[in-house]
Design brief:
Layout lengths: L1 E6 L2 H14 L3 E4 L1 H4 L11 E5 L4 H16 L1
Antiparallel strand pairs: 1-3, 2-3
Helix pairs in contact: 1-3
């Protein structure tokens, strides 16, 4: 498994998961329970979005493109 995103922003995480679904890449969000400790008040514990090693390049490329388009 390869990490493609690390964030505490639930909107950004959801957006990234939607991008992965759109390109047909299965992904997993890890550390959701830990990042929610103390109401999410521990900024150094972030959720990680993981994909299979074989999908990493396509996932990173699609996510970078989608994030860049979203910021415009």
């Amino acid at each position: 498994m390869i990490e493609i995103l690390r964030t505490n922003d639930p909107v950004k995480l959801s957006f990234a998961q939607a991008v992965m679904a759109e390109i047909g890449v299965e992904c997993f969000a890890l550390d959701g329970g830990m990042s929610g400790l103390y109401g999410g008040g521990l900024p150094f514990i972030e959720q990680r979005l993981m994909v299979d090693d074989s999908d990493a390049h396509a996932a990173k490329t699609a996510l970078a493109r989608a994030l860049a388009e979203n910021e415009s």
